Batch of 2 targets.
Target 1
Amino acid sequence: MRLMRVFRWFWLFAFSLGSVGALAADDVARVQNIRIGASEGATRLVLEMSERVDFRVFALDSPRRIVVDLPTLDWPGVDGSPNPDGLISGLRFGQFTATQSRLVVDLDKPAIVARRFVLDPASGFPHRLVIDLKATSAKRFAEQVASDRATKRAQAPTPSAPPVISQAPRKPNRKPVVVIDAGHGGVDPGARGSRAQEKQVTLAFSQEFARQLRNTGKYEVYLTRSRDIYIPLRQRVNIARKHQADLFISIHADAIKRKSVRGMSIYTLSETASDKEAAALARKENRSDIIVGIDFDDQPPEVADILIDLAQRETKNLSVKFANLVVKNARGSTRLLERTHRFAGFRVLKAPDVPSVLIELGFLTNRSDEKQLRSASWRRKIAKSLVKSIDGFFSSSQQARMTR
Ligand SMILES: [Zn+2]
């Protein structure tokens, strides 16, 4: 199938993604409503849409979920998911690649797709895409995952070697390159507050940050995403490497059960986490690819994980140096989490040759933090303190950079 092929080759074309413009909302079908109806051992999922669309369904395990791949869709009226019910424990949806939308259905217990069909408009209802789930055994579910995987393999082109990202020699006297990574996006909303979603907050902040940084005229600045689209974690790393970034900054916002916890924190890469919370946070952020339904069996071997062993000490030292500057300059501008700089194994920080940090701006679960995260003036203030940190970083590492 063409869509699957597009996905398979996604890595190879990953770098052209930045140039994809905003999709014209008029050309694509609109999802008007999502409904769930549950009965004993069966659950029906209905997408009401403005047009008939092609779709493709497959099952994935760990955790068990059903993935529905669709063409690019407009999801305007669907701000919140319907409450999970029956066999469904959660729903996520949104733009997945430049040409694809995805709906991920988390399963409460093993279930397979008993029927799938499209209904034409009738009785006041628009076009409807209907998926009927039926409870099944764990064994039968595992068989379904294996058979869906085999089908995909048969349809995909012959696997090629993973893309090699060559590092051409850096041009002398070029401006330092900074890549800003707005966490999450599209089908992966990230953490949720009472009003804001992490993917919105990270994008708004990253855009303000990029604007201020460009205004200095001193840096070449790239964003990993500039709209509401999902980008796999490894691809974010690859974008930084492709631009030969001198600094990669991933922007996030956290959520936690204890609503009183608030403040900014910053993370650099380490295989041994500095504390339990840092390790748990890294696990949570690394789940990004899993929750949107990426089938890791389908992916080329983990290049980054091999390369990371070869990572130069210098890259880590520079990351730490930048993190220290961020903490110093943010102090006084906003509340900081205690032990502000922490270490953990975030996948998105694994470029061996690019100093990288991940900033958790604050907690969406804390009322004051959420208010700040949604405030344009707070974002301006914090972006300004980060620009100051970047200025400090490059003025003192100029010498080191020239000789790299
Ligand atoms: Zn995040």
Target 2
Amino acid sequence: MKLFHSDASPYVRKVMIVLHETGQLDDVEVLRVTTTTLQSDPDLVAAGPLARLPTLVLDDGQAIYDSRVINRYLNDRAGADLYPTDGRQWSTLVLEALADGILDSALAMVYEGRLRSEDKQSPDVVEAHWAKVARGVQEIEANWLPHLAGPLDIGVIGVGAMLGYLDLRLDARGWRDRAPGLADWFRDHATRPAMVATAPA
Ligand SMILES: N[C@@H](CCC(=O)N[C@@H](CS)C(=O)NCC(=O)O)C(=O)O
């Protein structure tokens, strides 16, 4: 399998964490690319119409995307148990969606600064996305710490990758100030070998 990859992409990091946690790292060839919405990598375009990272290309040429589908595929392939089917099933999937939604807004903030010229950037749009990030982090602090303290699942992995991205790109916003319990959890979680091995440079 081939995985289109970029070190800084938090969606790629989720997939890399799953590869580590499920022992499939050696089954994947990593293809590092530079791509943006404005200038898509041509090989990534050839692999799929959205040309987004991550995209996984199977040995028979089938492309699998986006990160949530790739992780589900990798979990099934390894016979792993990152998607509980007991009472945690729906909470796990909601936590995964919450972490991804926070990431979507965090990326929108970063892209606003990178993809638009200064005169076209909207501080209101940036602040509206930050409000979603802040509410999302507060929601995890208020309601999800017991889940995070439980077994590793795809929601827990998503929160780890998401907080890593906030530290990488939005550190100055100080998410820890509004979520001390989450900060404590992340201090431990970030020492997992899969987190250490996938930390962006
Ligand atoms: N929902 C997608 C989001 C993927 C995404 O937005 N990836 C970014 C990199 S972090 C990307 O490829 N941006 C370039 C583009 O949109 O053309 C997923 O979970 O994989």
